[in-house]
Automatic annotation (TrEMBL):
Protein name: Transcription initiation factor TFIID subunit 5
Subunit relationships: Homodimer. Component of the TFIID basal transcription factor complex, composed of TATA-box-binding protein TBP, and a number of TBP-associated factors (TAFs), including TAF1, TAF2, TAF3, TAF4, TAF5, TAF6, TAF7, TAF8, TAF9, TAF10, TAF11, TAF12 and TAF13. The TFIID complex structure can be divided into 3 modules TFIID-A, TFIID-B, and TFIID-C. TAF5 forms the TFIID-A module together with TAF3 and TBP, and in TFIID-B with TAF8. Component of the TFTC-HAT complex, at least composed of TAF5L, TAF6L, TADA3L, SUPT3H/SPT3, TAF2, TAF4, TAF5, GCN5L2/GCN5, TAF10 and TRRAP.
The encoding gene: Taf5
Chain ranges of the TFIID subunit TAF5 NTD2 domain: 113-241
Protein family according to the UniProt entry: Belongs to the WD repeat TAF5 family.
Region (Disordered): 288-340
UniProt source species: Ciccaba nigrolineata
Length: 704
């Protein structure tokens, strides 16, 4: 180390960089006793320039790779050398003994790794990690998978096919089980040509795999690689991995396992720091008609209603502005129409009769089974007032049923409408054509399976998205298609209306989600960032945010106002297929092919729970109207009810947890499980709580 230092100092003196030399001397005296820590971060810079750059703490080297000199509390100095890059990389600060000359020190990085030694490098590191202390072993084991993939791809890329094959066969069995699908894709890439068209692998090469490691474990790794002069591995760590270093205790195997598993590793802690307004918007105030003036003078049983004291306005009981809510006008929302106000009044009356759910009082479940769908049911939605149900089918049809005695009717033709007296009280009834009344309406228009459906909150419109790359808006007054939105070039997997109507979101195979407004042909926002298909989309109850789940095994939360990604949640081990926000807007539940439901605290950006029990993909998640119960429906033909109140109480969301991601999930989620309900070989694809907290579930009977 001394010799290298002397060489560097001589070089600086020769180049007349006295100031830098002084700084380095001072630093060297501080770092003199730390033989393991290298003095300088080596990064490539323009040829023939040597400069000293001050790096703020924790920011790493100018290349964006973690700084080799451990980012401490004081500002670090990183020496940036010129030249000798290998395929655009420079070896990272690995000190070579007995070579006082700088150019000689740097030329050590010039040889490309010997392909026959890759197995030796990897097994050497593997041996080192497996023999390290328990507390470090769990953290350092995270390196196995990304290094394995990059070393394999490097061998393939440099056309060492036989070495690549033997490397793969020797080490692929050591990887965590949740990477099996990725490894299957990887095993088919055996030639350089194969890599060109493979998007997953291109992403892997270009996006940095994120590992969250404590400073102690990182220092241990760095020291080992430097002693062994294992440049090949160190280069990969430098170039392709982003190491998010935190101060504090290393995490345990359970804590790491809970959070890893996505295509690009964990989320950087920085990614979940932005402020999110997760509170609800204040309900608008308006007058409620007295009960006896109401059209429905009697309730279902036929008894006259009890008179209630007159309330001046519904708003009187609405809470004060939620401190975590976004400003009311942060994004423009549509004005309430009279019919919306009436609907809100109805909603409040229903809410007054709502059943309070809890562990002692579970909801009744009403299951809608689609018979003779021949595996063709691909999407379901139910209106907020539970009056209609829609199914999207693989034969490209959209079918709408009325589930109340009231039949579905279309508006009369224009000629007939002109005859109606517009002043009459029942004009809304008169415009409907009784001849068209039926329980079922079939909507034709898509040219591929329909993967997502969504009713507008006012029940006037219906969205459907399809394999044909379009999203269609249908009128439920005329049962015809009004608009086809073309923006995705590939299948669209999901679409959903905003809780306030007007806006809607779609997500598809092109890896982006798009925000639309019903009266615009083009999307208003494009949310790009996922590394694989966007499989499901959900609006936050305040409509200012959108959650997307993806086949890259991450969930992202996007800000509708500016299109920024404000949260990245990792922890699922398979593609995400369901999302649900809690009614108070604070929490998000997500379900995936791994059969786990994960619970997230949106404000702190933390995982706060894991619900295990399902044995197959979870396609449906829904919170009860007051948020006491979470219902999950799965391909394993069960509906499960979970105690949401208990799951979210006594959360540890102190600053330490948020800073380091030391989450402590309860060992056993069985005490949160309130009930499991089997269907008769019918996978559950949709769940919906009615306004009175009756749970509706839907799925298609499968005969096998």
């Amino acid at each position: 180390d001394r010799q290298t230092l002397v060489a560097v100092l001589q070089f600086l003196r020769r180049s007349n960089l006295r100031e830098s030399e002084e700084i380095l001397r001072r630093e060297a005296r501080l770092l003199g006793d730390d033989l393991g820590g290298s003095v300088a971060t080596v990064a490539s810079s323009s040829p023939g320039v040597a400069a000293v750059a001050a790096v703020p703490p924790g920011k790493g080297s100018p290349g964006g790779a973690p700084s080799l000199s451990s980012p401490g509390s004081r500002d670090q100095v990183s020496v940036v050398f010129a030249g000798s890059t290998v395929k655009g990389r420079v070896g990272g600060g690995v000190v070579v003994e007995d070579q006082p000359d700088v150019s000689a020190v740097l030329s050590a990085y010039n040889q490309q790794g010997d392909p026959t030694l890759y197995e030796e490098y990897y097994s050497g590191l593997k041996h080192f990690i497996e023999c390290s202390l328990d507390c470090h072993r769990a953290e350092l084991s995270q390196l196995f998978y990304p290094l394995f993939v990059h070393m394999y791809l490097e061998l393939v890329y440099n056309q060492h096919e036989s070495e690549a094959k033997s490397f793969f066969e020797r080490f692929h069995g050591d990887q965590e089980c949740y990477y099996q699908d990725d490894l299957r894709v990887l095993s088919s890439l055996t030639k350089k040509e194969h890599m060109k068209g493979n998007e997953t692998m291109l992403d892997f090469r270009t996006s940095k795999f994120v590992l969250r490691i404590s400073r102690d474990s990182y220092q241990l790794l760095k020291r080992h690689l430097q002693e062994k002069q294992n440049n090949q591995i160190w280069n990969i760590v430098q170039e392709h991995l982003y190491i998010d270093i935190f101060d504090g205790m290393p995490r345990s195997k359970q804590q790491i396992d809970a959070m890893v598993g996505s295509l690009a590793g964990e989320a950087k802690r920085e990614a979940n720091k932005a402020k999110v307004f997760f509170g609800l918007l204040k309900e608008p105030e308006f007058d409620v008609p007295l009960d006896d003036e109401d059209e429905e003078g009697e309730n279902e049983e036929g008894k006259p209603k009890k008179k209630k004291p007159k309330k001046d306005s519904v708003g009187s009981k609405s809470k004060k502005q939620d401190p975590n809510a976004p400003p009311q006008n942060r994004i423009p929302l549509p004005e309430l129409k009279d019919s919306d106000k009436l609907d809100k009044v109805m909603n409040m009356k229903e809410a007054a009769r709502r059943v309070r759910l809890g562990p002692e009082c579970l909801p009744s479940i009403c299951f809608y089974t689609f018979l003779n769908a021949y595996q063709g049911l691909t999407a379901v939605d139910i209106t907020d007032d539970s009056s209609m149900i829609v199914g999207g089918f693989a034969d490209s049809t959209v079918r709408v049923w009325s589930v109340t005695p009231k039949k579905l009717r279309s508006v009369k033709t224009a000629a007939d409408l002109s005859l109606i007296d517009k002043e009459s009280d029942d004009v809304l009834e008169r415009i409907m054509d009784e001849k068209t009344a039926s329980e079922l309406k079939i909507l034709y228009g898509h040219s591929g399976p329909v993967y997502g459906t969504s009713f507008s909150p006012d029940r006037n419109y219906l969205l459907s998205c399809s394999e044909d790359g379009t999203v269609r808006l249908w009128s439920l007054q005329t049962f015809t298609c009004l608009v086809g939105y073309k923006g995705h070039n590939y299948p669209v997997w999901d679409t959903q209306f905003s809780p306030y109507g007007y806006y809607f979101v779609s997500g598809g195979h092109d890896r982006v989600a798009r925000l639309w407004a019903t009266d615009h042909y083009q999307p208003l926002r494009i949310f790009a960032g996922h590394l694989a298909d966007v499989t499901c989309t959900r609006f936050h109850p305040n409509s200012n945010y959108i959650a997307t789940g993806s086949a890259d095994r991450t969930i992202r939360l996007w800000d509708v106002l500016n299109g920024n990604c404000v949260r990245i949640f990792t922890g699922h081990k398979g593609p995400i297929h369901s999302l649900a926000f809690s009614p108070n807007g604070r929490f998000l539940a997500t379900g995936a092919t791994d059969g786990r439901v994960l619970l997230w605290d949106i404000g702190h950006g933390l995982m706060v729970g894991e619900l295990k029990g399902h044995t197959d993909t979870i396609y449906a998640l829904r919170f009860s109207r007051d948020g006491e119960i979470l219902a999950s429906g799965s391909m394993d033909n069960t509906v499960r009810l979970w105690d949401a109140v208990k799951a979210f109480e006594d959360l540890e969301t102190d600053d330490f947890t948020t800073a380091t991601g030391h989450i402590n999930l309860p060992e056993n989620s069985q005490d949160l499980l309130l009930g499991t309900y089997m269907t008769k070989s019918t996978p559950v694809v949709h769940l919906h709580f009615t306004r009175r907290n009756l749970l509706l579930a839907a799925g298609a009977y499968s005969s096998q």
